[in-house]
């Protein structure tokens, strides 16, 4: 059994993998009070994993908490923290300095290469929205980064005097209230980013992951595949490679 951990910009996601299959995805906002104690209660029911794969894009203090919880529960457990490299598992990194590519984006590329043959535009819809193009022969073509849905709403509320921080509204379209207009405007910005990229690269199919993937998928005018475990699947590839 492998414990797969993805520490993003606002949430911790994890799953157990057995016999090469990634199980149910769990997610929590790590900014809540008492996060480390809460996580320990969740994990203490698990048997000792063969190893723990960890991907982290931010929050070093939270990462330290997560590792302390793991090592207190399973002293001496092997921990794998992969880095983005020039090439791996059939994927060639487009970055001039490969280690500067976010590890979550790199892992998504590795999993897409293995599980989804063809040309893909991979979109991770989290705190940030990232887009990466992967050619059929496994060459990363580069990518885009923009604020995610919640972050755009937060910036509007923080940067203006009168605009509120709004929750998801019932309907998508032209708003009859300020709240509805913000919600649909932010969603339209995210959708426009994705669809504009596909217009410029028409031979690429759309593969989505992240917390807002299913929400945005339902509003797009193009077909999309959603795989919320994509980053963890890429992390498992690295863990399995490390055990060979």
TrEMBL record:
- Protein EC: 2.7.1.33
Single GO BP term = coenzyme A biosynthetic process
Q: Which cofactor does it need?
A: K(+); NH4(+)
UniProt gene name:
coaX
UniProt-listed HAMAP family: Pantothen_kinase_3
What family is this? Belongs to the type III pantothenate kinase family.
Oligomeric state and interaction partners are given as: Homodimer.
Matching CDD domains, A to Z?
A: ASKHA_NBD_PanK-III
- Know the name of this protein? Type III pantothenate kinase
Which residues bind K(+) per the record?
124
> What organism, scientifically named, is this protein from?
Methylomonas koyamae
> Active site located where?
104
Q: What pathway does the UniProt record associate with this protein?
A: Cofactor biosynthesis; coenzyme A biosynthesis; CoA from (R)-pantothenate: step 1/5
Q: Could you tell me what this protein does?
A: Catalyzes the phosphorylation of pantothenate (Pan), the first step in CoA biosynthesis.
Record-linked Pfam families = Pan_kinase
Molecular-function GO terms, alphabetical: ATP binding; metal ion binding; pantothenate kinase activity
| GO CC terms in record | cytoplasm
